[in-house]
Amino acid sequence: MKTAELARDSPGYWRKKIRAGRWRRPTSGLAPGYAQANLVIVPRDHASDFLLFCQRNPKPCPLLEVTDPGDPTPRAVAGDADLRTDLPAYRVYVDGSMVEERTDLREVWRADFVAFLLGCSFTFEAALLRANVPVRHIECDSNVPIFITTQHCRPAGPFVGPLVVSMRPIPAPMVSRAVEICARYPLAHGVPVHIGDPAPLGITDLGRPDYGDAVPIHSGEVPVFWACGVTPQAVARRARLPLMITHAPGHMFLTDMTDEDLALH
Amino acid sequence: MKTAELARDSPGYWRKKIRAGRWRRPTSGLAPGYAQANLVIVPRDHASDFLLFCQRNPKPCPLLEVTDPGDPTPRAVAGDADLRTDLPAYRVYVDGSMVEERTDLREVWRADFVAFLLGCSFTFEAALLRANVPVRHIECDSNVPIFITTQHCRPAGPFVGPLVVSMRPIPAPMVSRAVEICARYPLAHGVPVHIGDPAPLGITDLGRPDYGDAVPIHSGEVPVFWACGVTPQAVARRARLPLMITHAPGHMFLTDMTDEDLALH
């Protein structure tokens, strides 16, 4: 690791701190300007179907990295990282049910584990804020409201399930700007999947999200829906894999890729 | 198939004609406005590594569709098509060597075949021409010049090899415009991988391409290099798979997706 990468605000600094057990909290706001990622680990037997699921559903499942079986290093996005130790908290699922939360995977790591890193909404939210587009749940210091829709993902093997979306209310004159900004980040869920009346998504009450917190929608604002990184985790749980490991909500992996590295080029 | 889709210039019209054995020539220029695709078929045993290779090398390998094992229908891009019959010519490779060219795969199709459809340069070339950016090999009515570079693709399992690029000379004032246009089509190789002096790619003589034909580079023009769809086929041949089937050069699959469907949205 180069010295510059150990600066206070670098991802390397935070990964080292997390690895040493000196940071166990959510990662939002750490190493600003660098992309954070969702983590899903599945055994090799299910990795090819999960990879196919991600290929078929790129908006909820934007792949940043897929590791070789047994290799805990995400070589493309953080060549000196260790996915077994560098996230503050993990969740272990057996047959689709969460059985424990851990801070370290070294004792449970297996030679057949394949790790998937998926782009995260932090990237486009930061871009929206830089353009003065409001992000309501950040204003409210709450969790983004998340809804399970009646739209189906394209299935792959055992991975079958609905599209899950997050909702952010955007002032009507700024909706086009929000789309333009998010279009640059297909690896962070990209443009919204739906803008306006939530009925076609099968959502009947925006005040009652399936996960996260409800947020106020002001007069003149439009509900805007993005494909959500909860989708692949939800689909993997429904598939009741014998074993799956994910990051704990909000406790993401910090990559060495800047948000700009993730932008279209 | 809907009546409108059987119009003279529709992909469905041409697929039906090809299926009936009434078109055995290259597909360039057929069904203008619709995206054509490269085809690679590998047995299931190698499909997950090949899928991973494409995920790790999205510029040379932009995935439009991956079929389920044994299913000859590319459901996302042409729901009534049959990949066994709807291309004018196929090539069969055994242990990395071409053993025959066929016009029909029905006799050799297997329940473990997985088909990969990859975006094709026709899509961005049509967009360049619409914007009055010249495409030299089309002007010359020759094949695009293709070079094997000294840059390595990210490997996956047995799939290892160099990046292969195509070259188009672009007038210097139009190079930015060409990049802007191609940026809309990440599923058709996207923006150029290299612009200008070919030495860093390990290319010493632009007049001697590894495949295709040399084209003149006029004064004031810059050589511009795009990741080429030959890359995955070349890598798959090097891997000496027991069996692999591809389209014959220039004899592509016609999808029902318009070039605009493939553009960023």
Describe the model.
The structure is a homodimer of 265-residue chains. The first copy, chain A, is α+β, with helices and mostly antiparallel strands and 265 residues long. Helices cover 22% and strands 26% of the residues of chain A. The first copy, chain A, has helices at residues 11-19, 44-56, 122-130, 136-139, 175-183, 230-238, 259-262; strands spanning 34-43, 63-66, 90-94, 97-102, 113-119, 146-152, 162-171, 194-195, 221-227, 244-247, 253-258. In chain A, strands 1, 2, 3, 4, 5, 10 and 11 form a 7-stranded antiparallel β-sheet that branches. The longest helix of chain A is centred in the N-terminal third of the chain and has 13 residues, at 44-56. The two termini of chain A are 26 Å apart. The model of chain A has no long low-confidence stretch (mean pLDDT 94). Chains A and B meet through helix 2 of A and helix 2 of B.
Note the topology.
The structure is a homodimer of 265-residue chains.
Chain A: H1 11-19, E1 34-43, H2 44-56, E2 63-66, E3 90-94, E4 97-102, E5 113-119, H3 122-130, H4 136-139, E6 146-152, E7 162-171, H5 175-183, E8 194-195, E9 221-227, H6 230-238, E10 244-247, E11 253-258, H7 259-262
Antiparallel strand pairs in A: 1-5, 1-10, 1-11, 2-5, 3-4, 3-10, 6-7, 7-9, 8-9
